[in-house]
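Whiteboard transcription, Tuesday session. T.W. wrote the structure tokens on the left side:
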């Protein structure tokens, strides 16, 4: 990894925050994407325009994958690719909440090697680089090392608790909490603020790429719902859910999930 990749992402994320916070979420123009793909605002598009100009210009050999850019198979020919979500948590942004984030990552042959999750309205800058650990506002972070699931706080949306997703229909007991931005959920696990996160819904790469590295560099474990390591820059950039936590909680959740469940579909 070029030594400056992480700094490149940090600088771009800080600029993204300046752009996004010029808009008032509740008054920003908003549209609904086709086929129920969710909302987009003028702030998402403005941030995406800046990132798409700035990042590939700095690394012309890298591919590009963004929620707000029409996908191209050209990225599949590149060893390294930017994977970005200009604003993760667009609904929260549009509602005037502070729990939305910029999520930026670089993947090298399918593995994320540099990552930033930035929440400008909360002044939270999470960063990670392969082999260099993870930080929050410059301070090293670690995942929770709690071992008992029944005393754990797990970030998960309510549909994940449907009995059909668990072996013998037995839903495990833990304290379920929720935050709207998937990137922010993963960052909170990396920080150790919560003990794990779980989503059984097919997950877009741009929502989880940065969080995957952040958690792994914070000494946690991140996999799809079947326990497989996450691989990025796929032809169809969607992964089979996410389990993320310290080793004990990750392994417990994975063991309790029914591998034959088809997951949650949009």
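and on the right, the sequence the group agreed on:
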């Amino acid at each position: 990894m070029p030594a400056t990749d992480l700094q490149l992402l940090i600088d771009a994320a800080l600029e993204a925050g300046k752009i996004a916070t010029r808009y008032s979420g509740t008054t920003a123009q908003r549209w609904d994407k086709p086929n129920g793909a969710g909302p987009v605002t003028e702030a998402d598009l403005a941030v995406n325009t800046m990132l798409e100009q700035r990042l590939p210009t700095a690394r012309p050999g890298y591919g590009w994958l963004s929620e707000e850019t029409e996908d191209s198979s050209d990225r599949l020919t590149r060893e390294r690719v930017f994977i970005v979500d200009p604003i993760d948590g667009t609904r929260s942004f549009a509602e005037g909440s502070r729990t939305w984030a910029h999520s930026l990552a670089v993947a090298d042959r399918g593995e994320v090697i540099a990552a930033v999750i930035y929440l400008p309205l909360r002044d939270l800058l999470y960063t990670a680089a392969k082999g260099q650990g993870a930080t929050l506002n410059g301070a090293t972070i670690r995942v929770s090392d709690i071992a008992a699931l029944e005393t754990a706080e797990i970030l998960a949306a309510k549909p994940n608790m449907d009995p059909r997703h668990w072996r013998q229909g037995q839903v495990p007991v833990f304290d379920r909490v929720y935050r709207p931005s998937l990137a922010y959920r993963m960052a909170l696990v990396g920080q150790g603020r919560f003990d794990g996160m779980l989503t059984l819904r097919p997950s877009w790469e741009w929502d989880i790429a940065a969080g995957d590295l952040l958690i792994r560099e914070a000494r946690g474990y991140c996999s799809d719902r079947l326990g497989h390591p996450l691989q990025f820059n796929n032809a169809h950039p969607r992964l089979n859910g996410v389990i993320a936590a310290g080793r004990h909680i990750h392994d417990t959740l994975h063991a309790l999930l029914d591998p034959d469940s088809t997951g949650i579909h949009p």
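Someone added at the bottom: The first strand starts at residue 30 and ends at 32.
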